[in-house]
User: Which sequence fits this backbone?
């Protein structure tokens, strides 16, 4: 069965959930067998608090816009259903996982690590693949020729879609390293009973031995006496 991945991104009221910042947007896209399926999960959320001006400058979301949106508690089950059993692909995963686990913790729910099969951090991948270079999403889009011309502001769904394309480009070729373990009928060994047929031994003729020796002597000459085959033969 093809592996299922969910590429995820969030927007928040600020940078630190430990100081009370909350998730205000969640965007997810589904990959199955390294292909986008078209399935998405996207919600804006009412954080019930003010938004830091610095964060608002990044994503453009205002408290007024979010005032009539659902709270995280209202979408928690739907989000868990969407990511259940999948491997998450996130850029700077510690940030998003920290915020989401805080939201689930406030609801006395299990962390994402207990719901999903694993987490891939594309920021860490990029740092290993591109040491000393910028590895934000815009830089990776430029590196892997992913069109991000519509990204004037950060947005969870748009960024998840861009990250999915970047991830596929970053890992292109890895699928060729995977051994196909599916059983194949034509590889089934055929066992036969009874005595084995006698092996035929074909020996070199005198002419073939002379020609072989001539070639070894030429190799010895070119290698200034370093022909191991001729030394072994002697």
Assistant:
């Amino acid at each position: 069965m093809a592996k299922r991945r969910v590429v995820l991104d969030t927007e928040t009221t600020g940078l630190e959930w430990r100081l009370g910042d909350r998730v205000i947007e969640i965007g997810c896209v589904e990959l199955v067998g390294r292909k986008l399926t078209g399935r998405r999960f996207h919600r804006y959320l009412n954080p019930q608090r003010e938004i830091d001006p610095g964060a608002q400058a990044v994503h453009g979301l205002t408290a007024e816009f979010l005032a009539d949106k659902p709270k995280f508690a209202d979408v928690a089950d739907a989000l868990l259903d969407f990511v259940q059993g999948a491997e998450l692909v996130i850029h700077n995963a510690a940030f998003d996982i920290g915020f989401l686990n805080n939201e689930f913790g406030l609801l006395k729910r299990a962390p994402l690590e207990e719901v999903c099969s694993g987490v891939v951090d594309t920021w860490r991948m990029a740092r290993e693949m591109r040491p000393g270079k910028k590895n934000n999403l815009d830089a990776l889009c430029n590196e892997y020729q992913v069109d991000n011309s519509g990204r004037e502001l950060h947005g969870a769904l748009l960024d998840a879609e861009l990250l999915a394309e970047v991830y596929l480009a970053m890992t292109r070729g890895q699928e060729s390293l995977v051994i196909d373990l599916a059983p194949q009928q034509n590889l089934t060994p055929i066992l036969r009973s009874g005595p084995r047929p006698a092996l035929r031994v074909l020996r070199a003729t005198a002419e073939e031995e002379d020609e072989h020796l001539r070639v070894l002597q030429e190799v010895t000459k070119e290698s200034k006496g370093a022909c191991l085959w001729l030394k072994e033969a002697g």
